[in-house]
């Protein structure tokens, strides 16, 4: 008798959870940046009953896609590639239970959320060439993936496109923290694509990202897309080292790895020319046209379809969004491969104040004299910018905890850029690692934005409070003044 009562109680709890999931899908909520803009508002009617998995045939290729946000007039001339090419891309993609759960939620008409992180190529810069489009992001592989999945379940895929021009993997780490701290539920899938903007130069950078994702989203599927730096015809020593690190971390944590470089090599082995997969329409080799983005989507579709072919329908619950107060929740998880310690990474895991140019809610839009202004000096690249040295200071009010940190992001470039004085108001003395800021322990530093690399990127630096007051928290400010050179651009200031 007791056994029957337990079974009945479990069935009731399962039904209540399913009802709550349906209610969440129907009621619109303030999702993170661009989610509703990318996919439209949530439907006002109740979702249909779950559809059995046999009704789902396959994720379409680019040639089978019925609707897309943008595609060129000659899209029908882009050939569909042989499955053997995409099979070669399955570098670290065995059958994956988390992918199974992700696809089953889509089959059951649950709304899924995909977050994409990467640089300008991932964002879609240049992908409309030689044609034109209003928004590069609309022809990116992320937007095409959303359209392909929504062909199976219309209106059930939310895309949060968080790729940024000039952003490498360390630059994206504060972004992923802010995205989850300001959200109401965890994304179902996070995709990392930093082959062109860089993985940060150290395997620790990727492991930090992996462990931060698990801290906040332990059931979210994380996927790595690998490709070599396309400025080189052959993989460089850095490419080889980065691929080794990606494979090592993929195996250590059980994270899927898709290898577009391996697909290009297989295409060449079959007698094709790799430039058909990555044409160089623009002078910048990092920014391929729509065709390459379509093939990235086809690679993902092939991986999804392999999983669908072996999946059985079962009820899958949404991933949990965790809001921890400290780092103790992950003490029993997989030990780090490269001895990464989250308490020492260059990011505020529990931010108290954030001033971000892409989401400047409550942040200043100009300095007192107007020499600093918040605007886009290049398409989709906003920042607080000044164009001449002066005494005018750009000031951000911030809050500090007892373990005070300040994370600053600014533009690094090879020309037409200068040096800014950075001052921090408050009771602390501050110190840094000495790599990107000038000045010892204190409250005033210099940030030189010019460097010798022929690329413009977002530089991330962290300052650590070295002298703590008796109070548990305190207000302060971070200010910038252009000291030398023609320009300086602040992208974000975050404190904790």
TrEMBL record:
**Region described as Disordered: spans on this chain:** 37-56
Q: Which UniProt keywords apply?
A: Signal
Q: Signal peptide location in the record?
A: 1-21
Q: Does the keyword Signal apply?
A: yes
Please name the Gene3D superfamilies in this protein's record.
Answer: SGNH hydrolase
Entry protein name? Uncharacterized protein
